[in-house]
Amino acid sequence: MTTIKDVARLSGVSVASVSRVLNNGPKVSKKTIEKVSKVIKELNYTPNANARALVTQKSTTLGVVIPDLIDPFFASLANGVEKVARKSNMQLLLSTGLVSAESEMQAINLLIERRCDVMVVHSKKLPDQVLIELSNKVAGLVLIDRYIEEIAHRCIWLDNIEGGKIAARHLLALNHKNFACIASKYQIDDPLLRLQGFQSELKSAGVDIDPNLIEHGEPTLQGGEVATQHLLASGKRFSALFVYNDAMAIGAISTLEDNGFKVPSDISVLGFDDVLLSRYSRPKLSTLNYPIEEMAMQAANIGLELSDKNTELNKDKNYKHIPRLVKRESTSYNPNK
Amino acid sequence: MTTIKDVARLSGVSVASVSRVLNNGPKVSKKTIEKVSKVIKELNYTPNANARALVTQKSTTLGVVIPDLIDPFFASLANGVEKVARKSNMQLLLSTGLVSAESEMQAINLLIERRCDVMVVHSKKLPDQVLIELSNKVAGLVLIDRYIEEIAHRCIWLDNIEGGKIAARHLLALNHKNFACIASKYQIDDPLLRLQGFQSELKSAGVDIDPNLIEHGEPTLQGGEVATQHLLASGKRFSALFVYNDAMAIGAISTLEDNGFKVPSDISVLGFDDVLLSRYSRPKLSTLNYPIEEMAMQAANIGLELSDKNTELNKDKNYKHIPRLVKRESTSYNPNK
DNA sequence: TTGAAAGCGCTACCAG
DNA sequence: CTGGTAGCGCTTTCAA
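The joint structure predicted for all components is written out below.
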């Protein structure tokens, strides 16, 4: 591969001069610029970013750590970060395959090896303390979808409790009295908090939810189907169903209709996340919008600030987001008194 | 950030020795390994991948060029490449935002700057010749979803014509006689070829398709809805509808049912791609499976081979894939004679 | 405005 | 088995 030396030799100038035209450096004569540019074109020369990173001590890369790209939620996250990367003339480095604290740590380490200037990390398994220590090593570290008080200025998160409350208020306002819930079987905080917010708001309204009407399942379409079958099998009646995420909610609707229940006239179903799917389902899914792409963009931008030594960091920042109710077709007024 | 020198100094050995234990080099005493490992842990040292890349002349990165991550099709593509990257202890570099030949070229150039060992490129806009020349510069270049004869050994592609034929055969076997089509308005080859295969197979069976029943639209849910409205507005009858992709097909079903047509009993609808959505729709979508993730993994693996100077390249390889019919619920037998 | 040279962090070769 | 050292491709002083 041709190097800066080749370009220098063929244009009859020093590598320093080539470097200057490469970087639009100050004080380069027009003549030099022209000569060098011509040779660069002829040789089809492309500067080596690794060498640059080495000497400048910045890699112009932005790392992302997510479980996978198949889940549209994480794909949106990555897409948001990528947008910022592109705008900032940086490159996106991606690490996935996270199933355990070890693999999360490994993914992060790979990005550190690459000396990413910014790292947007979606970690559910690593302990707070590890992440806090990590933030001392990586200036541009930002956590998304997680809140750790000690490093709150690096956390872009969604208020899941409030999300649960908003869900409850919506269903309550629709005159529902008998509720069911489907949560994720994975005991990470999100499903727990959503459920917690939901129940607490119901309680405030003087409504209790039958423990038999709280199911836990795989956070997938199938998981939603299975959980709904359990719900139905319990024999208890309910007119409103709050589901952990959209995929499960769509599975739930499927099973409900297969069993002769109309959505929303018999049973209202409310999802969470507002992924693409929710607009494709029939009936279109009412859900809570999780603005993950915007949050990811914000995360990337904050990482950029954090990694910039010139801007002093303000530790008092708070990046909490509140989900927004999106009323579509799967929830409706309950006419029964 | 701590460097190999720091580690060497504190362990009382040379940088060469540290490098050896870092790379499990041969001929290192247990004692040295232990000493060095201890210091590495203490210092929390992480080797600099950029420096490594510079000296070894391999970046251990795998680049991907796709339009975006929001489209589940491309997300699957990226996910496939990522799987291979992880298995090979490499990192994924992602470039998106492709709308023109210029932006495609720019994305590719960024990856070249990074000296990616392998590049999996999804390019629809760059001319054949440019890609051919590029392949001389980048040993590990692989094209996905595109076929260029001169560099066929670098092309992993789907036979869209055959896909169209398979679609036609399926619908014909279901006793359909009156067909409609929705294609993408974008005049890239895929929609054209699918339509071409579809029509040619119909013709072989002695069936013609009314030109008024061929619509073109945006390749999205909404595009499918609009196109279907046009189809319906034409007043012509049809019992089978072949649609460019799943998103459009789901939009089509929506509009059909809104207009009183039952799918599949009144009209059969067949999609293409078999993205996640197709399993979530009601009725579940019959479609043609585009094994994009597998193809992406194959592409990455071939790129790996190509980038390895030790393996001589066999230019006679052919990586054509045939889509597979997935019968679900949106197509059925037409009882009318 | 230009060139010479130091050095970024690391690997790999050559001596010992 | 270990250390010294050249050099990967580039940027950035410092002098000229």
